[in-house]
Amino acid sequence: MDLGPHAAFIWISYAAVTVTITGLILWLIADGRKQAADLEALERQGVKRRSAAPGVR
Amino acid sequence: MQTLTQRLANPARFMELSARLLPWISGAAGILLVSGLYLAFFASPADYQQGETVRIMYIHVPCAWLSMMVYGLIALSSFGLLVFRHPLADVSAKAAAPLGAAFTFLALLTGSLWGKPMWGTYWVWDARLTSVLILFFLYLGLMALRSALEDESAAAKLTAILALVGVTILPIIKFSVDWWNTLHQPSTDFTSTVDPSMRLPLLVMAVAFTLLFFAMHLKAMRNEILRRRVKALRTQAVAGRDRLAAQAANHGAAE
Amino acid sequence: MKSFWALLSRDVRLAVREGGAIGTALGFFLVVVSLMPLGLGPDLNLLSRIAAGVLWIALLLAALLSLNRIFEADHEDGTLDVLATGPLPLELVTAAKSLAHWITTGIPLAIMAPVLGILLNLDLAAYPILVATTLAGTPAVSFLGAIGAALTMKTRRGGLLLALIVLPLYVPTLIFGISAVSAGAGPTGLAASFLILAAISLVAIVLGPLAAAAALKVQLQ
Predict the structure, then answer these.
(1) What biological process terms from GO does the record include (chain A) (predicted)?
(2) I need a surface site. Which of A43, C85, C163, C176 has the fewest CB within 10 A?
């Protein structure tokens, strides 16, 4: 594919967008895993959510 | 009758619904993105004036569109928080801010890379670029204000106030930047005439980026809800431990 | 309404009696304007061409430095909590405080601007316009600044955060303030920019106290 004399600008633009968005998506997935793991660890320790145990304030 | 937003007010129901929606939105975004890239690179001609560099437009314009739409979404969520006290409004505003800032940054970066072959320099104080730059500052302000405040519920409301002030001033900023630009140099307006052959790839890419944003936004909102649950459980656990310790101490003193 | 004037005159008298804050803002204004020729070279033609822009930017920065004192002292000694429970609506409290800031900072800076114009070889014909536009534009600086001051009242690194929040909101004031003074605009352009500048200040006078009061309510609960 010949993108003319300014091919570098096109490639850098697409690369920057790809890297930024991929980075964001990976961070979101990693963050989600971490929060889910933390939540599970707490629940295994026996800490119950307030909504799960009515009456406990 | 309940509206959709009312039904979504329960975080548990939101988690359930978003878990079901997320794969579909992500899948649709992926398919549209691939077909959009195919259209952008193989099925659309080079511009007769700009040559191949016009292909930067297919990512620049969706990023610029998202930079504005996401700010609108933040303003709407802020309104929802301050007026209706919707429990998910702040989660939505908080999750959207970094994503919006990222797309605004990408709009600036691709705009500058598009501008170099067009204008001969990386940066021109063109009305549109300048407005987007100021929008980027508004995003930075929102994020900085939230991170500077420790109390989360106060941070939510104060950030919402700033977002609503921003959305009120934004049209005035846009107007003044346009005025300033026509005062100093004739406007270089070359995106207004988009050839029909480029319209389809542009539309597909814009829809793909929008869906991509919503997928990321849903995921970020889910993460934020989980983070809040973890935080609530931790404070609850600490409070419980303190209560036990106090009981033990009382018991010891009584003996 | 009586308590509004009482609060206004109290704030103005406090600022005048302390004196330090007004002096600091004026001194900062002078130093920044004096640094410009040192940075850009002593070419008088160049200086007179950019004088309006330099004066407006220095004025905004000088006003910015004084914004945090709108609410800070009263928050620290608890006066703000008393005012919040008093008979005067919080919106009028923030309006009085913003107005006091304009009287004690905006007006002195506006009067100082033409004096500093001499240093920058500003065209003599532009002096009345400069005073008029700075007087018409500085209410926006005080009233929009009050929003930032209220939002950052409880943050520790408030100063820099305040600048980041407030400076983008000053863009319209800056643009129309400069375009009114710049000779290139012509008489019709001058009238238009002056009117728009005044309109921006009016929007700020309405928006500022509302948003600042909302921000104070969140923090004073």
Answers:
(1) cytochrome complex assembly; heme transport
(2) C85
